[in-house]
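Reviewers of the previous submission asked for a worked example of the structure-prediction workflow described in the proposal, so we include one complete record here. The input consisted solely of the amino acid sequence. No template or homolog information was supplied to the procedure at any stage.
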Amino acid sequence: MGTSGSNKVAVAGKQQFWLEHWQQCLATPGTVKRYADIHGLNLAVMYWWHRALIDRGLLAGKPKRISFKKVVVLPDNHQPVPFRVIFPNGVVMEWMDERMERTKELLGLVASLS
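From that input alone, the workflow returned the following structure tokens.
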């Protein structure tokens, strides 16, 4: 396995380590600080992982961090882009557009009709 594969395993291992500690901590009476002291854990690191596990959907709670997705910008070759909108009443509208300005105008017009 390459270097990047090793890093992925290490991250998964840390994630699992902290997930198990948080599950035990939440099931144990007493404070988080006391749990951290008993298990020799750094309280600040423990809270950091609490937030990270919530943001990753592994612990219950409201995520606060925004997940960013990679955006790929395609070259401006003016090739038509197909669009298809299906309205709740079953009407289907399809078109091809080379310029996004026209599509924005069209969608603005449709939005103003409701």
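Residues 3-27 form the longest helix (25 residues). We consider this example representative of the routine output the project will generate in years two and three.
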